[in-house]
Amino acid sequence: MSPGLGSPPPPTAPPTTTPPPAATATPSVSAGTRPATNALQPQDIYQAAYIDFSKGSYTLAMAGFREFLRRFPDHPLAGNAQYWIGESHFSLARGHTNAGQADKAAQELEEAVQELRKVVANYPRGEKAPTALYKEALALIELKQPGLAQQRLEYLVANFPQAEETPMARERLAAIKTR
What we know:
Blueprint: H1 21-24, H2 42-54, H3 58-71, H4 78-98, H5 102-122, H6 129-142, H7 146-159, H8 166-177
């Protein structure tokens, strides 16, 4: 039998009683944690809310867009954020309609109208203003308010003649007028 078998190997370094220098330093943020909200840039908050919207998490998206507007009301994306709040209500209404929940759908459509009106009221020259007008008119048609829908569509056609929604608005106006 060779000597030393079964006995511990000789130590290579003497044991230390003080912690290594890294242990006394300030702990760093680990890879899996989120930064504090106030460290986020406006685009980060907006993008996170938009991702929630695109996944169909409309309530979460609305909360994110509202937070964005609360913190950055004058940001260039503020009008877009307001639009997506209205669009979220519109999408929730569609879901309620498909589920046969007419009362809930009507409530969400009313909310959509209110939120979409804020786009035009607060950001009249924002890129989403014509889209908001068109979607508001669609909600009003579903709410059986064709007179108000007609006014919004006429406003869209008169004030945004080059908008992508204008030809569709003209078609809707023709349909309303022939009823």
